[in-house]
Amino acid sequence: AIFFPSADGVCVFKCLVNRDTEYCRLGKESVLITLGYNSALLQFKSQAEYSTFSNALKRCCNQKKEDSVFSQRTDEASAAQYFQFYGCLSQQQNMLQDFVRTATYHSAILQNHIDFKDKVVLDVGCGSGILSFFAVQAGARKVYAVEASSVAKYAELLVRSNNLSDKIMVLSGKIEEVSLPESVDVVISEPMGYMLFNERMLESYLHSKKWLKSNGMMFPTFSDIHFAPFSDEQLYMEHYSRTNFWYQECFYGVNLSSLRNAAVDEYFRQPIVDTFDMRILMARTVKYTVNFTEAAEEDLQRVEIPFVFQMMQSGLIHGLAFWFDVAFVGSLVTVWLSTAPTEPLTHWYQVRCLLQTPLFAKEGETLSGKVLFVANKRQSYDIQIVAVVDQTGFKSVIFEVTLVIVLGCHEPCPYKVANLISVVCALTAPPTGRSRISLSLSSGLPIP
C-alpha cells in the first residue's frame, strides 16, 4: 500500500497496489492509476515528487505476490467457479428475494440501530451491497463493503446511484487480501452455506475479525446447527426407483444391468437439498453451537460433533437431517434467522444424508456416534457420519454405518441433489457380525 499523508501526518489518500495494478504516466508530473473498478489521476507539484512516487509504485508492483490464507486453503478452479457464480445478478436476485433472509437482516440491523449509529462497519462478501445499505439506514458513519466477485462493480453502481459514495466504499477483493484504512466497530456478513459450513465462507468471516476493534460486534453473532435421524420410506424408494433404468438388458441392443449397482451407490451418495415435515424425525435434535465472536479460523477446519439420540418411535432410520439457525445479538434485541423445517422456507432449505442400508431401531433404543466435518480445498467439507444403534451390548445384532460425504456447492432446488464428480463405495462385513457401509461422495457446482 502507498499512503499520501498531509502536512500533519494524516492519511489523505491510500493506494492498494500489487503486481497486477495498471498505471501510466501522463505528462511530466502526473500518473493515472487503476484502483479496482475506479481510476485516479494523481498530479504532483514537482518532477522530484513524481519520481519518488513512481519508484515506490514500481517497487510495490514488482514485489512477489504471496498467497493469501484464502488461496492457500482453496483450489484455484473451485475459487474461479465460486466467484463466477456469485458474479451473476440472477444469483444475487435469488438471495435478495429470499424474504426470510433479507427481512431478518434488515430487522436485526435496524432494530439495533444504536450499535450502528456513527459507527464504522465492515461488510464481508457484500454481494449487491444490501447489508451495507441497511447499515447506513441504521446510521453508520462509514461502511467498507468487500466483495471478491465481479458483482462488486454492480455494488459500486448501486452506491453511486443511491448517492451514498460518501458513506459506502466498495473494495474489490477477498477479505484475506484487502487492506482497510481503519479498524471497524461492527462486522456484518451472510456467510452461511448448506449445513451451515458449506462454501467455507465462515472462515473468511472469522478472518475479518483482524479489522474488528476489541469491543466490536459481529452480525451474525453465533449459529446453531441441528440434526436428527429421520424415516422417509417414500424418499428412499424414489431413489431406488430411479435406478430401474439400469435394469434394462436390451437398451438399443445393449445390456445395461451390470451398471445397476454402481447407479444405486451413486444416487445414495448424494446429499439431498429439500424440505420435509418434522414428523419424519425419530428423535429430538442434537445442537452444536459456533460462536463467531470467540471461534478462530482453525476451529472450522475440523469440526467433530458427537451425538446420542433416544429414539422416540420404532422404525427404519433412513438417514440424518440437518438445518441451522443464526442469532444477531444486539444491544437492544436478539434476532434469529432459522432454516428449520417448521419455519418459512429459505434458499438454504434443509439437507438430508440418506443411508443406502437403513437401520432399524425400536422406541427407547439409542442411536449414537459422531458427525465429522473436515475442510477440503473445494470450499466444502468431507463429512463422515458414524452411527450405531444400541451399542450397549444388550442386543445380539448391532448395526454400524460409516458414511463419508463431500458436500459440494450447488444451486438450491427442492428434491434436487448435488452434482457428482466422483463416487467410491466399499461394503465390508466385519467379523463381529455388524454390517458396515463405507461411502464417499464428491460433488461440485454452485452454491446457495
From TrEMBL:
It holds the Pfam family PRMT_C. Its EC number is 2.1.1.319. Residues 225-383 form the Protein arginine N-methyltransferase domain. Coiled coil: none annotated. One of its GO terms (molecular function) is histone H3R2 methyltransferase activity. PANTHER family: HISTONE-ARGININE METHYLTRANSFERASE CARM1 (PTHR11006:SF49), PROTEIN ARGININE N-METHYLTRANSFERASE (PTHR11006). This is Histone-arginine methyltransferase CARM1. It comes from Apteryx owenii (Little spotted kiwi). The lineage of its organism: Eukaryota, Metazoa, Chordata, Craniata, Vertebrata.
